[in-house]
Amino acid sequence: MNIVIFGAGGTGSAIGAYLAKAGEDVTFVARGKHLEAIKEKGLLLKRSHEGDILINPAKAVSAEEYAENPDVIFVCVKYYSVEDAIDFLAKAAGESTLVVPILNVFGTGDVINKRLPNLTVLDGCIYIFAKILEAGVAEQPEKIFRVIYGYRKNQPRKLEEKAVKLEKILQDAGIRGHFSQNIERDALQKFAFISPMGAAGLYYNAVTDDFQKPGEVRDMFVGLIKEVVAVGNAMGITFERDLVETGTTMMDAFKKGLNSSMQRDVLAGKSSEFDGLVRRVVKLGKEYDVETPLYEKVAKWGDSKGL
Description:
The protein is an alpha/beta fold. The chain contains 12 helices and 13 strands.
């Protein structure tokens, strides 16, 4: 299958590396020194749980250089780069292209699809710890790797045969791929982990060690999860599991010293997903008449920091 990875950061590099290693036709759309390094020496994904993956040669181009007709485009950019993704999709995607956004922010697929109504844009989410170590080199320090995607309620199920086929392709590549029949629930369930972790981690400048022991950080994390669950329930979403138990169990299984991508971006002085991961919950709370005092606290703190 002809697959494009738009945004070869930690997440995109990992997805692309696994798929390319499995023999899929993968093109990385990247930029800057990272793009130059991939073109020159391939893409290296360092993994602590098993052997590293080196894709060399690797197909890598800039957004401007890309000129094919792909079967699937994984959108793996940060939420603040959604406009770049929309511009690329308007040029590169066609009627036969399945678009799968893999972003941290809930509801991104609908945002893109409203701008590009002629395309088949699903919703998706991912469970992974991955980051860029240097140009051409990414790291996956934890084994967890799940990609979930699906059609929204009342969305025309165009290209469904391709969506079904993609699930097996992901699984054959060693990724826990799942073609969901309730993506709103599954994506919000993931959001109920990454958003509280990012919000509490940033507020307290905390790493996984701090979340794994009793105290303010863990209490904040649990409280934020409960607020996301309350918003989801108000939206008509019923969760099949206790998300507090799920979130804390996942957190307790992680290695020490890890932090979220939003924390890393803020610490590096870069743009961050604060608006999508924190303020979005406050806005949804107001829209569905749900109190979100902890998110409001973090949002107000973020305002004071210029985030």
